């Protein structure tokens, strides 16, 4: 099963799974894909028997290929009962997830299930479950009743300790059910379900009409569900499976006991600088990440954030060369054929900045230095929030963010107001004078000096 059948899952999970089957000659596997918020992909894949194209873009791109590992595509929104039934089926051995940060419905400060979320409450009250955590837990509950045996739940989202977090959320849901149900379910989960952590990496933009037309040219077939992706892909997985799995290692996945370190490195180097380039790019009217990283000043800011602030505050996993990794990240961002938009990477900022940038900011302050560059990324996000009308801000917390914004939009008002937005910033950081000072410095430059002035300030910083 795969929950969250977006472009990323098709270009990553589905490709690794097909490659594993091909390499191992083990064709016993197939993916039941579940779309979460809309049924578009399920509708696109159904008449194509689940087949879709992956077209690589950039240096070293392989020819377009048709991927056949998805055997069924269903809409979690329209047929939640079917999702529960499939998770509960004995044939299901692994449930993978790419539901994005906001799909987990967790409280970012406590890393526990957000029991105030109305959809979680409705799922707990017994409606056909609409949230991913509700679907998984109800599916596991049914699985226990069916006696369908152990299963692995494998989060593939950009979250630190994604396996442990998913386990906590599922157990949190189970524990909030009536006691007549929760006790036995919690015991069953303990004995039958594992939640390994993973680090996933591949840049996969949303497919455009132009991408579909190019694929049609290449294949001679119209594919409504085609995806484009960079040639690079990586998957690091903790080997803790309850009930068998495809031999993903034969497809190039790497099994490691050190997934948290891989995940921290990826989040704080790649994803943090991705977000930084997105908000700097948006401020300067640049449409894509490759346009943003082509700006020498933005590239400098990004590189210095990684090398001077993020790297010194991360414990790298064995085998990862930090300097090389950063250079490789910048090279991948520069891929002009990918068309990864700053708007897309800049979406859901409230869910991302805390995971990607705040650990670097804390670590740098703790080491007695100023996180100048990471603060620039946060200031650029703040300004993006402040100048984008709430209705256009692509963020699940857009209304809440706009509710705290002052009417004046003066930097000295906006910065403290957004720092007071508790889902994003803890109180100690919000009251940190040094941090406020850095944010105000950059915010004023963004506001008053324009992209050129910003460039000058970066170059002289
Ligand atoms: C990006 C990621 O949209 C975003 O926030 O930073 O989706 C990024 O492209 C992937 O994590 C790359 O593996």
TrEMBL record:
Mind telling me which residue stretches traverse the membrane in this protein?
none
**Keywords, A to Z?**
Oxidoreductase
Catalysed reactions, semicolon-separated: D-mannitol 1-phosphate + NAD(+) = beta-D-fructose 6-phosphate + NADH + H(+)
Q: Any keyword Endoplasmic reticulum?
A: no
What's a single GO MF annotation on this record?
mannitol-1-phosphate 5-dehydrogenase activity
Pfam short name (any one): Mannitol_dh
- The segment(s) forming the Mannitol dehydrogenase N-terminal domain are 1-249
Domain (Mannitol dehydrogenase C-terminal): give its ranges: 258-436
UniProt key word Chaperone: no
Q: What is this protein called?
A: Mannitol dehydrogenase
The record lists the organism as Arthrobacter nitrophenolicus
């Amino acid at each position: 099963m795969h929950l969250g059948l977006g472009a990323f899952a098709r270009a990553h999970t589905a490709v690794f799974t097909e490659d594993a089957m091909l390499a191992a000659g083990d064709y016993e596997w197939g993916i039941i894909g579940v779309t979460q918020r809309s049924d578009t992909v399920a509708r696109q894949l159904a008449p194509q028997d689940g087949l879709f194209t992956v077209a690589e873009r950039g240096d070293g791109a392989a020819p377009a290929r048709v991927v056949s590992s998805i055997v069924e595509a269903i809409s979690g929104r329209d047929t939640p009962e079917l999702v529960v039934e499939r998770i509960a089926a004995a044939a299901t051995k692994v449930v993978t997830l790419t539901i994005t940060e906001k799909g987990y419905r967790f409280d970012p400060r406590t890393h526990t299930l957000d029991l105030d979320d109305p959809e979680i409450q409705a799922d707990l009250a017994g409606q056909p479950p609409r949230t991913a955590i509700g679907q998984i837990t109800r599916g596991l509950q049914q699985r226990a009743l069916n006696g369908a045996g152990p299963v692995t739940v494998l989060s593939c989202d950009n979250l630190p300790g994604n396996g442990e977090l998913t386990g906590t959320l599922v157990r949190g849901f189970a524990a909030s059910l009536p006691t007549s149900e929760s006790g036995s379910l919690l015991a069953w989960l303990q004995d039958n379900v594992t939640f390994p952590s993973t680090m996933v990496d591949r840049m996969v933009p949303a497919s455009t009409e132009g991408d579909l037309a190019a694929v049609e040219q290449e294949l001679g077939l119209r594919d409504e569900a085609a995806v484009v992706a960079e040639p690079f892909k990586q998957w690091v997985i903790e080997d803790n499976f309850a009930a068998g799995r495809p031999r993903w290692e034969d497809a190039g996945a790497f099994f490691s006991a050190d997934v948290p370190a891989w995940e921290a490195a990826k989040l704080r180097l790649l994803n943090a600088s991705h977000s930084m380039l997105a908000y700097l790019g948006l401020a300067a009217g640049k449409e894509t990440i490759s346009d943003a990283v082509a700006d020498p000043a933005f590239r400098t800011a990004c590189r210095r954030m990684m090398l001077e602030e993020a790297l010194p505050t991360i414990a790298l996993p064995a085998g990862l060369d930090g300097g090389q990794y950063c250079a490789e990240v910048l090279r991948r961002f520069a891929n002009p054929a990918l068309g990864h938009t700053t708007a897309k990477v800049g979406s859901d900022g409230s869910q991302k900045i805390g995971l990607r940038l705040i650990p670097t900011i804390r670590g740098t302050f703790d080491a007695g230095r100023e996180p100048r560059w990471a603060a620039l990324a946060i200031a650029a996000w703040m300004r993006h929030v402040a100048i984008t009308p709430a209705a256009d801000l692509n963020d699940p917390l857009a209304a809440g963010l706009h509710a705290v914004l002052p009417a004046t939009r003066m930097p000295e008002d906006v910065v403290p107001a957004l720092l007071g937005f508790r889902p994003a910033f803890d109180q100690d950081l919000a009251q940190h004078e040094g941090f406020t000072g850095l944010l105000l410095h950059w915010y004023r430059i963004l506001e008053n000096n324009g992209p050129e002035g910003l460039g000058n300030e970066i170059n002289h910083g």
